[in-house]
């Protein structure tokens, strides 16, 4: 999973969910996007406002268990201001 972040100067945060090219089918891509959207919804207050976030997921991220995905997601989130 990779995150790209940049300031947008707006009073809200915006998100882009991108599965990478390791996803072979639309089903895998859509599943990864659903998982990422749910994680963002669940932890939205932890995101600083005024930024654009692009979350790039590999196919292995969706194959992790639910608990492992959340731990991994939160560990990456802690790296931001």
UniProtKB/TrEMBL annotation:
The keyword ATP-binding does not apply. GO terms for molecular function: ribonuclease P activity; tRNA binding. This is Ribonuclease P protein component-like protein. Pfam families: Ribonuclease_P (PF00825). Keywords: Endonuclease, Hydrolase, Nuclease, RNA-binding, tRNA processing. The keyword DNA-binding does not apply. Gene3D superfamilies: 3.30.230.10.
């Amino acid at each position: 999973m990779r995150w790209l972040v940049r300031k947008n100067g707006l009073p809200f945060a915006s998100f882009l969910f991108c599965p990478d090219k390791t996803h072979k089918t639309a089903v895998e891509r859509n599943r990864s996007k659903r998982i990422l959207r749910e994680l963002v919804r669940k932890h939205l207050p932890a995101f600083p406002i005024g930024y654009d976030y692009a979350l790039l997921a590999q196919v292995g991220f969706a194959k992790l268990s639910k608990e492992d995905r959340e731990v991994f997601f939160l560990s990456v989130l802690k790296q931001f201001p």
